[in-house]
Specification:
The structure is a single chain. The protein is α+β, with helices and mostly antiparallel strands and about 210 residues long. The chain has one domain. It has helices at about 1-25, 60-70, 180-190, and strands spanning about 30-35, 45-50, 80, 90-95, 100-105, 115, 120, 140-155, 165-175, 200-205. Strands 1, 2, 3, 4, 5, 8, 9 and 10 form an 8-stranded mixed sheet that branches. A two-stranded antiparallel sheet has the order 6-7. The longest helix has 25 residues, at about 1-25.
Amino acid sequence: MAASHNMRRHWVIWLAASLMLMSGCASTLSARVTTYQQWPVGVQGEYYRIVAVGNQVGNLQFDAYADMLRAAIGATGLREAGAGAEPRFEVRIEYDNPVQQTWVQRYDDPFYYPGWSPFGGYYGHWGGWGGGIFYTPSVVNVPVEVYRNTLTVSIIDRAAQGKEVYRSTAVHTSHDDNLNAVMPYLMQAIFDDFPGNNGQTRVVKYELPR
């Protein structure tokens, strides 16, 4: 009886830890940001314009993402050019979320172990009874599909013969096709710590609303 009680206790602790880990992963979003820049000095207050290229022209999804960029670009010190204003900078956006297959390590679900009983021991493959001995679930490699949510923002300086002076790419992987939901965070990641160090790669994390 005592052995069975101990096994239940170990099982509940393991299950609680797993749930805590799962909830922890769900409450934050992380993005890997790589930045290259030769940002000019003395450009505070200069004008920029967001430029659509190719099939972005007239694209409602692009228009929505452009609004997100406007909300995040304040760290540059630039102002959006209005009607009649001649912008010094052109800002371009590239985005995609291709699905890829990767491998992850996971615990085998004890409820689906052959002969596993979470409250009564383990019935072995050869007919032996575990007698209340707690078995730690084994780790297995399983294939999963992930979406590589990617945003690249580049800034062109027209006063420097169209030279690219800023390029930053933010990448976040997810198991769901949720590019629209993560795009505001990718925009924020692009402009956090602007302009950053040339060639810098960093990981940023954001708390998600509960």
